[in-house]
Design brief:
single chain, mainly alpha, globular, disordered C terminus
């Protein structure tokens, strides 16, 4: 058996492979970004915005619950088995979206997609944290989320391009068949198990020994409410994905009402996750140098400003600037939250803590879609979008007040016993 070594350089081959696999995971979500809201309105004649956004509610709830289970299952059965299982669940999704005879079939496809995303994306996150060790955790998460969300953007742009020339169905979803085939084959034949890296890190990590590992119930309560750092991270993640749910479901409708063409909507739908993805190449590593807390706070406040600027714009250039700023703010927040979870949680229960965090984070999709859809039906699409900047600014204030800095700096021995106060 090969000796277990921690670090990005020491595990470069497997780490790079997992980056590629996560790109295919992200591409599966991206193929819906441009298409499902117009499919709901033009092919299934759904008028109520809450009905149009029901696919995001189904996706968010199933993904959130599966995220929680993925952490537990990967601790029990191993990471690779969970990853492969997630791809098998995804296999029917492109075909269901191509040929769905009614909206209920689209909702079923999104339930499967949510389960698949919960298993695959959660597992690639956990496996990269396993491989990277504590030294470059922010960089590892930045690379992971870059791959996923840059692929979301590329897939949204590609499906919008295909739809503008061939129609909304079935041709754009042919891409999804390729995504599933590539992701599944790589996961089965090339990805290796990383669970044994946890034991290696546990020997090096201060804190509770494996015998004192908390129960699943204790991990849930600690991550959700009791630990001031973990619970601050969880609520910030929920608000982040509340915004993403609004962007996914409401943005295409908002841009259409503003007179944007399908090609332009595809570009705008791609610009936000593209900036988000590219930015994470830098922000994840930056959090390893500067710390986690103020990147999270600053990113949330930038998200709030970006949403306001987008809402006040009246044409494509303003929409593009707002979408890019929103992506930059999200890039500051997203990998940093995951890295902070890794800072706080001990290696022996880290996967479960990541699962709880991702449970709360992806409930944000459902909350955003339900609340924004209801407001849109009552007072209009543009007014519904004001929900995002208000809640996001308040969430940033909560993190600034409650969360401590979680990055432990080797040069400051006094900070090794507990995170330094900011």
């Amino acid at each position: 058996m090969r000796p277990v070594r921690l670090g990005l350089r020491e595990n470069l081959g497997q780490f790079s492979l997992l980056v590629v696999v996560n790109a295919f995971v992200g591409a599966m979500v991206g193929m819906e970004r441009t298409l499902l809201p117009p499919i709901a309105e033009h092919e299934f004649h759904l008028v109520a915005k809450s009905a149009v956004l029901s696919f995001i509610v189904v996706f968010g709830i199933t993904k959130a619950l599966t995220n929680y289970l993925a952490g537990r299952l990967s601790d029990r059965w191993g990471r690779k088995h969970v990853l492969v299982g997630g791809w098998l669940v995804a296999a029917p999704v492109p075909f269901l979206l191509m040929w769905a005879p009614g909206w209920g079939w689209v909702l079923f496809a999104n339930a499967l997609l949510g389960v698949s995303q919960g298993l695959t994306w959660s597992t690639t996150v956990i496996m990269k944290i396993d491989l990277a060790g504590p030294a470059k955790r922010g960089l590892a998460m930045g690379l992971n989320e870059f791959a996923g969300y840059f692929a979301v953007a590329g897939s949204a742009l590609a499906t919008g391009f295909v739809a503008a020339r061939h129609g909304l169905r079935p041709e754009p979803f042919y891409l999804g068949v390729g995504y599933v085939a590539c992701g599944l084959l790589l996961s089965v034949f090339a990805v290796r198990e990383t669970k044994h890296h946890v034991a290696a890190e546990s020997k090096l990590q201060d804190g509770a020994p494996p015998a004192d590992r908390p129960t699943q119930r204790e991990v849930f309560w600690r991550t959700s409410f009791l630990d001031r750092n973990l619970s601050s991270i969880s609520q910030a993640g929920l608000v982040n994905n509340l915004n993403d749910g609004i962007a996914w479901g409401i943005f295409p409708l908002f841009f259409a009402e503003a007179g944007m063409s399908l090609d332009q909507i595809g570009v705008l739908a791609a610009l936000y996750p593209a900036t988000w993805g590219m930015g994470q190449l830098f922000t994840g590593a930056l959090s390893d140098r500067l710390g986690r807390k103020w990147l999270i706070v600053g990113g949330q406040w930038l998200q709030s400003f970006a949403l306001v600027s987008l809402l006040l714009s009246r044409g494509f250039p303003g929409f593009a600037l707002g979408a890019a700023l929103l992506g930059l703010g999200t890039a500051m927040v997203y990998p940093t939250l995951l890295a902070a979870i890794g800072d706080v949680a001990h290696a022996t229960w880290r996967a479960s803590a990541v699962g709880v965090y991702r449970l709360w984070r992806d409930i944000g999709y459902a909350v955003g879609a339900v609340v924004a859809g209801g407001i849109a039906d009552a007072v209009g699409v543009s007014r519904a979008m004001w929900l995002g900047p208000a809640i996001t600014f308040i969430s940033g204030v909560a993190v600034a007040v409650r969360m401590r800095e979680t990055l432990r700096r080797p040069a400051a021995p006094a900070s090794e016993d507990r995170p330094a106060l900011s």
